Amino acid sequence: MTDAVTLDGVDLSYGSRAVLSKFSLKLGVGSFSALLGPNGAGKSTVFNLIAGLLLPDNGDVRVMGNSTKTSRAGLRHVGMVFQQSALDLELSVVQNLRYFAGLHGMKKPGAEIERLLSQFGLEGRENSSVRDLNGGHRRRLEIARALLPSPEILLLDEPTTGLDPASKQAIVDAVHAMSAQGVTVLWITHLLDELWPDDDVIVMQSGNVVSHGSFADLGGATGLSRHYAGHERPQL
Ligand SMILES: Nc1ncnc2c1ncn2[C@@H]1O[C@H](COP(=O)(O)OP(=O)(O)OP(=O)(O)O)[C@@H](O)[C@H]1O
């Protein structure tokens, strides 16, 4: 499988605090990878390196073959959904999407906006103010927004935190469907019930990958919860 993302021998420190040391990881095109690990393991640091928001001190991060150190070209391919909302509450659903499309130089985004509104169950809410949407619909809009420029890679940092089960399921299903269509997904989560048997699971601890395999091969939720620590179990 061709790699959409490679981190090769990456060192990353915040001041004197070394978080990643000789860290390597590959994400194949169209793979769905869940990045798990206790608080402070380095998950968001990996996310930010792939997003180009951080550059490695040493080593290389490549996105669609382009090193983030020398080229921004690969980053055109990356959509991001952060824990914190990036939506403008004062604008309507469609205004948020049109504004984002403009930032990405999309000339005629109408058809793509309509397709995404339908895919994420937001038809009929085009003109609603984001302020009036519930948390589940806001998250769906956030993901639709990230997908608008048709990124080949989608990074999501705990996108379902705080959502009701139906909204959570809708997002989990939609993002898995994107991956089946060839989008490479990296999904940071603490919630094992969001994972499907064939998902690639990467468990980090203290800046290292300590387990890597399919969700099924790592023993599913039962097997992983013995080893993996989320918010609930701080020991790995
Ligand atoms: N800007 C920063 N300055 C200094 N230290 C930082 C900074 N960002 C992260 N860290 C530290 O780097 C380590 C890794 O943090 P990171 O946010 O990548 O972990 P994480 O696995 O995403 O954690 P969480 O699940 O809490 O989001 C932690 O010890 C954190 O305190």
From TrEMBL:
<dbReference type="InterPro" id="IPR003593">
    <property type="entry name" value="AAA+_ATPase"/>
</dbReference>
<keyword id="KW-0813">Transport</keyword>
<dbReference type="GO" id="GO:0005524">
    <property type="term" value="F:ATP binding"/>
</dbReference>
<dbReference type="Pfam" id="PF00005">
    <property type="entry name" value="ABC_tran"/>
</dbReference>
<keyword id="KW-0536">Nodulation</keyword>
<feature type="domain" description="ABC transporter">
    <location>
        <begin position="5"/>
        <end position="231"/>
    </location>
</feature>
<protein>
    <submittedName>
        <fullName>ATP-binding cassette domain-containing protein</fullName>
    </submittedName>
</protein>
<keyword id="KW-0547">Nucleotide-binding</keyword>
<keyword id="KW-0067">ATP-binding</keyword>
<comment type="similarity">
    <text>Belongs to the ABC transporter superfamily.</text>
</comment>
<dbReference type="InterPro" id="IPR050763">
    <property type="entry name" value="ABC_transporter_ATP-binding"/>
</dbReference>
<dbReference type="InterPro" id="IPR003439">
    <property type="entry name" value="ABC_transporter-like_ATP-bd"/>
</dbReference>
<dbReference type="InterPro" id="IPR027417">
    <property type="entry name" value="P-loop_NTPase"/>
</dbReference>
